[in-house]
Amino acid sequence: MKRRSFLQGTTGLMLLPSLSALAQDNIRAIAREAYIYTYPMVKNYLTMYQYALEPNGSQYKGPFNTLVSIARVYTPEDTAIITPNSDTPYSFIVFDLRAEPVVVTMPPIEKDRYYSLQLIDLYTNNVDYLGTRVDGNGGGDFLITGPGWKGDVPKGIKRIIEMPTTLALGIIRTQLFSRDDLEKVKVIQAGYKVALLSAYAGTPASAAPPSVNWAPISDELMVTNYWSLAAFLLQFAPPYPGDEAQRENLAKLSIRERAAWPGTDLSPDTVAVMKEVAVAAEKEIRDEAARLTDSSKIFGTPEFMKGRFMVRAAAAQGGIYGNSVQEALYIIYAFDAQKAPLTGKTGRYTLTFTPETLPPVDAFWSLTMYDRPKQFLVDNPIDRYLINSPMLAGLEKGDKGEIVLYLQHENPGPELESNWLPAPSETFYAVMRLYLPRAVALDGRWMPPTIEALP
User: Fold this and answer.
1) Nearest to 331 by CA among 178, 435, 423
2) For the chain, what is the mean pLDDT?
3) What is the pLDDT of residue 179?
4) Which of 24, 163, 372, 413 could bridge to 168 as Cys pair (CB 3.0-4.6 Å)?
5) Rounded percentage of the chain residues whose pLDDT exceeds 90
6) How far is the CA of 200 from the CAs of 65, 66, 118, 205, in angstroms?
7) Which DSSP helix (H) or strand (E) runs through 302?
């Protein structure tokens, strides 16, 4: 039987619930902060699980600490990552760094092709990059360690990167110039190598890490089992300096490292409130993500993202694994010039570049189409998911060299089809990516063109 409190007043007895309104408000506030803080970790683990821990799943890539290359660009059938690019064939590594470090080999490539390895911790921070921007295109062997690793570094290691979490993700992007270029990309991908440090150095292997009963996760379980998933992941994610208050909040909610949730110290009322908060906070994060217009301040290093928990959560929801702005700048088009949402049901739109307003990059740029409800690439009859700078020579141009792109559901006709980016028959958004953006794009001197609605 639930305990009840009674207040005696002149008008009789007042019945109070076991969880007072004040306590409920306090728990709601703490749980909201806890949800926003942990959301990127849980969202990240969803991808890691599908890639490395679900062998029978449609998105499975391979076990921990192995590299798997996809010798094609992404299509609408790829659904493990929201808002994926379709410019660069991907290679993936899901790191488990608990036992020993991993050596990653980047092959030397030609100087005019872009490639990068993005190293992402469990919090979704971009810890570091290998490749064109940071290291050039000469390749090399790089040592990826877990937090606080101490050990002998073998000869031949070009650089050491310490990851702050023991679970981490590596995403390699290799520029594809055209469909005819795919065979060359396959050769480059074959040069990407991953090895445990002991195998690379020819030394005895480290002791195996403790076995883990990996928590299953899916989109549905992110709703029903959210707090238990958050508790499970703490063992792989030491807190950053400055996260003390957030970890104290988690402890108040019985979310502790290697402890099942809910604990016996939580009342059924508190558990119910926390589940309600999870639903409300997820909507708040989605609403925040929908307001994002570019990526210049939403992805970055742990230092750059320090304390910016809502920004990090919105970025994970709106476009998880986005690059730091020095690597790539993203312009998000969800509205036309009149601030109306983009929709393929009733709208037809244009995006116009002049020779002077083409995106300023040292690598390449692209414009990619996504359906808004699901955040995936859009299936269409010509299998075109983007228009990018390598396609410029094949686009129709006006008398003054201007290029008009058509964003709409229906084919605009054979004369304009080369410039058509097919849209779904529902709400959509488009993302312009500038790889290795120049200073004029980063400091605001270059302004992206607006999307105009056709009458």
Assistant:
1) 435
2) 93
3) 83
4) 163
5) 89
6) 13, 14, 21, 10
7) helix 302-305
Could you tell me the CA-to-CA distances from 133 to 176, 181, 299, 437 in Å, in that order?
Answer: 17, 22, 17, 11
- Please check whether the two domains, 61-201 and 327-453, share a CATH topology: no
pTM of the model: 0.89
Which residues are CB-neighbours of 234 under 8 A, at least 6 positions away?
250, 255, 256, 257, 258
* Nearest-angstrom CA–CA distance, 132 and 327: 9
Whether the predicted pLDDT of 422 surpasses 50: yes
> Among 22, 19, 27, which Cα is nearest to 278's?
27
Give the model's pLDDT for residue 22. 54
Reported for 272-276, long-range contacts at CB under 8 A and 24+ positions apart, including other chains, are 273/19, 273/24, 273/27, 273/28, 273/31, 274/27, 274/31, 274/227, 275/226, 275/227, 276/28
Could you tell me the CA-to-CA distances from 428 to 202, 225, 371, 384 in Å, in that order? 52, 30, 4, 15
Residue 130 falls in which region: left (phi positive, over 0), alpha (psi -120 to 50) or beta: beta
Asked whether 115 and 91 are in contact (CB, 8 A), the reply is no
The amino acid sitting at 329 is L
**Cβ contacts of residue 208 below 8 Å, gap of 6+?**
99
Measure the CA–CA gap between 402 and 157, rounded to whole angstroms: 48
What does the pLDDT average to over 16-40? Answer: 80
* b/e code 284-304 from CB counts within 10 Å (16+ = b): bbeebbeebebbbebbbebee
**Domain ranges (residues) in the chain:** 18-38+215-326, 61-201, 327-453
Instruction: Assess contact for 404 and 352: CB atoms under 8 A.
Output: yes
CATH class of the region 327-453: mainly beta
Predicted local confidence at residue 415, as pLDDT: 95
State which amino acid sits at residue 63.
P
Classify domain 61-201 by CATH architecture: Sandwich (2.60)
Q: Residue 16: what pLDDT? A: 37
